[in-house]
Design a protein that fits this description.
single chain, about 300 residues, alpha/beta, 2 domains, 6-stranded mixed β-sheet, two-stranded antiparallel sheet, 10 helices
Length: about 300
């Protein structure tokens, strides 16, 4: 049903975009060592993990009867889950992600995030990991449940191609919404500029961690947002509220802007460190292969 609805959303030129996303993803990931991630989930597969005492409500078929014959006590056999990883890619499609400066090779932050998400999806699916997707602005707009089937990659690419920037964002509220969508232990990969109230964002990320989610944050920024290179009088327009615009002298604002920017970055960095979250700041001028290699290094498989 979801695949059919995505199919209806795609315009004719979007199909070329899907193919292009797959081509980009394959080109970046091929040659990078992936490795397999060992699951911390308990499930049913051929890999035995350990015994634990039987408790009322456990399935009778899980009882180790041979061990019962030796000990006269009931124990359950536990196994490693067959799924190596259950990941959800969370892509920001709010208005602020439309920004593109002069050093980003023509890519907006959203276009960069979509391509990076495609690379990560390709990487994880080819490792037979289970991958899902959520796009959001003020709330989750498209949600694709995690799957590990090879043809699931096409569904993910179509959903990414259907993602479009518009309106405002509420990152903190969206992260809390994910609590109800990601009930099983897994990995959440956030691709966003992380603009908003940094302390609220950190609190929401902490809630995800307390809900047994591993979290990786790819904070995607344009070079202009990092070093504020403007000199002449400039008209700044809001990408989330089109009626908001102001003509200013950048030189008078540069110090204040950079102080506020670095303050927010420090809160995000320190908060991620506190909650044991991988924070990966990314500039849209960086190559995708560099960013994916950084991700693999974070995962300890490069």
């Amino acid at each position: 049903m979801l695949a059919h609805s995505l199919f209806q959303w795609l315009k004719p030129n979007d199909f070329a975009r899907v193919a292009y996303l797959q081509w980009i993803a394959r080109g970046v990931v091929d040659g990078l060592s992936g490795g397999m991630h060992r699951s911390r989930h308990i499930g049913s597969s051929v890999d035995f993990k350990e015994h634990r005492p039987y408790v009322h409500g456990d399935e009778i078929r899980s009882i180790d009867w041979k061990l019962y014959g030796k000990t006269d006590r009931l124990y359950i056999r536990q196994y490693e889950d067959e799924t190596n990883l259950r990941a959800t890619l969370v892509v920001d499609q709010s208005g602020s992600m439309r920004y593109s400066g002069s050093r980003c090779q023509g890519l907006s932050k959203h276009e960069y995030a979509v391509r990076l998400a495609a690379c990560l999806a390709y990487l994880l699916v080819t490792q037979q990991d289970s991958v899902g997707l959520a796009t959001f602005d003020t709330q989750v707009r498209i949600q694709v449940p995690p799957r590990s089937r090879p043809n699931h990659l096409q569904v993910l690419m179509e959903a990414l191609a259907a993602s479009a920037c518009k309106g405002e964002t509420d990152l903190a509220a969206t992260l809390q919404e994910l609590l109800s969508l990601c009930r099983r232990r897994g990995l959440i990969i956030l691709l966003s500029d992380c603009f908003g109230d940094s302390e609220s964002v950190v609190r929401s990320l902490g809630l995800l961690r307390s809900n047994y989610q591993e979290v990786v944050v790819f904070q995607i920024l344009d070079d202009d947002e990092v070093d504020f290179p403007f000199h002449n009088r400039t008209m700044f327009r809001s990408l989330e509220k089109s009626e908001h615009q102001v003509l200013v002298d950048p030189a008078a604002l540069r110090t204040i802007y950079l102080d506020n920017f670095h303050h927010g970055q420090n809160i995000l960095r320190d908060g991620c460190q506190k909650h044991r979250i991988d924070w990966v700041p990314v500039r849209t001028s960086e190559s995708f292969s560099t960013v994916v290699a950084s991700y693999l290094a974070r995962r300890g498989v490069a």
